[in-house]
Amino acid sequence: MAVLRAVCPRWTKSTSTPVSRLLCRRKFTSSNRSMGANNAKSISEAFLNKFSQGQTFVRSQLLDANQLRLFSLTLDRPHLWSSSNSSSGHDLEDKEPLSGTPIPPYYHLVYFTPAQLPGRLGLDGTDASFNPDAPFTRRMWAGGSCHWVGANPNNASTQALLRVGEMATETTKVLSCEPKVIGKTGEDMLVVRVEKEFRNSKDELCVLDRRNWVFRTALDPTKPATTVPKPAELSVSELEQAATGKVVREYNRDEAMLFRFSALTFNAHRIHYDKPWARDVEGHRNVVVHGPMNLMAMLDHWRDAKAPSQDGDGIFFPEKIEYRATSPVYAGEAYRVMMDEDAVRQKVADVNVVSNDGTTCMKGTISDWS
């Protein structure tokens, strides 16, 4: 795992205590355990009280070329940018991207990864830095938005982009924590919204990344779950009909890809690589494709569709994306990323992840700059 040793990012705050210790330590206190197990409102208020002074948590890190190279290859993309004229037009199997190469939309996920000791992870392997108190510790990436603030092509001479080989800074703050009820089951859950700003070595704001995490009640590993059955896939003619008038990219992720993605993002969430846990504890029929992997597939699909109409070196960014995960995608099951053909030439494009049984698994809206 040499790629994970390149940089060890460090959290900073008004004290020198790393955030992983600052926040994880609290979940073991007696006052924490005395809270009502199902009192979502009080737990939400207690969570927000941790951040009541508007604290921000800051990390700096080198944007390492090899880490980005391995990440793109894991996604089966041997080029960071589609144009051979770009500064990373060479095949990544041959060599690393050049210093100064802009990092593609949402590939910043491979940096500023979690940095906890094993004993500080949740039971399901998740990073517990921003977890509410028990029992709401089962985290899922539910959606969010991302705005490439510094990438406005109308200000090409002053674009602020994250680039290979530079030092960058991530600033994280909690925006909200809301108790909600799952309509189908009546189960309580908490929705936590965080905001991450990414700045380049000149302290220019490049990316504004807002993430929505859902926290549900923790599961008991000793109680076997009911596995979600696999629906029947649509027929070939039905799939062809659904693709009429659309630009389509087909995927079928395997376990090896999910494992490499987890390793490079230092994501120990067990639903992505531990099939017995995913199936027997959480009720999934196989390991689950990462939500951010589907998000990146939508952005890559948009970039690939737009590329032929772009001038210059082929390096371009959307203005923003808003997205929401609606259903799991499983390893070994075919699915497609789809957008209307006409949307390629429009300012706003709806891009969806749809399984071959017809289930919409993620919805996204990508806005171009013009």
Automatic annotation (TrEMBL):
InterPro entries: HotDog_dom_sf, Mitochondrial_HTD2. Signal peptide: none annotated. It comes from the Eukaryota. This is Mesaconyl-C(4)-CoA hydratase. GO terms for cellular component: mitochondrion. Gene3D superfamilies: Hotdog Thioesterase. Transmembrane segments: none annotated. One of its GO terms (molecular function) is (3R)-hydroxyacyl-[acyl-carrier-protein] dehydratase activity. It comes from Knufia peltigerae.
